[in-house]
# Entry
Amino acid sequence: EFPACGFVTTPGQAASSAKTTRSKVPLAGEFYLQSEFYYAQIDPETGGLQRLRAQGATENLLSERVVYRLDGDGGNVARSSGQWSQGVAEPTYSRMVADSITTTKTGPVVGEIVVQGRLMDEDRELATFAKTYRSYRGRRNLEIKLSIEPKQMPSQLPDRSYYALRFAWSAAGAIVKGNLQQSEYIAGERRLESTGPIEIEDSDHRITLLPHHQPFHQRTGMRMMDSLLIVHGESVREFSYDIAVDIAHSAALSDELSQPIQVVPVNAVSNSKSAWLYHVSAPSVNLMEVRPAALSEDQSGPHYDFDFIETERRHANVRFALFRKPSKAWEVDFSGKILNELTIENDEIHFECLPCDYIRIRVLF
# Structure
């Protein structure tokens, strides 16, 4: 396990002498993947996610498939038309057909299933796709890698003609939250823009969707959402998605997946096997950036600026600890003007963070 913003040293071993341990519980098998926290069942006919449930439970939390929305292919609608703002009551979609489903890894660290298939209309092939599911031991997220090769391109109606991942969840009363500028908000009933994780939360479980670099989504009812992948003019054909079960803090998971742990080979290490560089007491407050402070001529000494953001719409009283004892600390604005001096107790800096607040703390060591 890693300490907060820290490091861990582990002894290396040559690949030729490494021993492979067989897991007693496989991470993948015929039409399923799992970890200690979830069980995912793959539909043998479509290759989509048929059921996702918490490990040890029976309730289906989420289903997913790749789709092409068809009802926008009838031509363009002029903005002056009375139909421009009208939604389509019953969207029509392609059929997802799996040509092959192969279990390529069963553990002990990674489970993997690869799906090759097609998206079909009644009498024609709209696209081919390759989809890879991965589960990891000790992790709550199911990873999806998707490649789509369209034969039918979407029309110029981006809200009615697109390739997407279509999600459905069981809880009709679930609260859906999006994320903009790394702060969450309650999503509306139709269109949803989110540059970060999307949460689907009811009283029992929380599903987190991580649509890496795909910010536009469209709800088609209280229990369904299309996460748009390819619209008119889009050139990207490969996509990544993560689905997590019962993650306490989705922003932290998003940061972890977008900035993976770095492995640095070294010849020798010190006596310290692990150490942390900083610690923030509030899980909803994230450290965004650290930089040497721009000082005026009358200031001297090692000053550093730490930028924080609150991600869960919560008020937080934060204790901020560093690997080095701070001498003084201030809250400053973005021009460097001191707003107030902060209290330091037991080598911890105390400050207040309002919901969705972005603040800068200047520290003198």
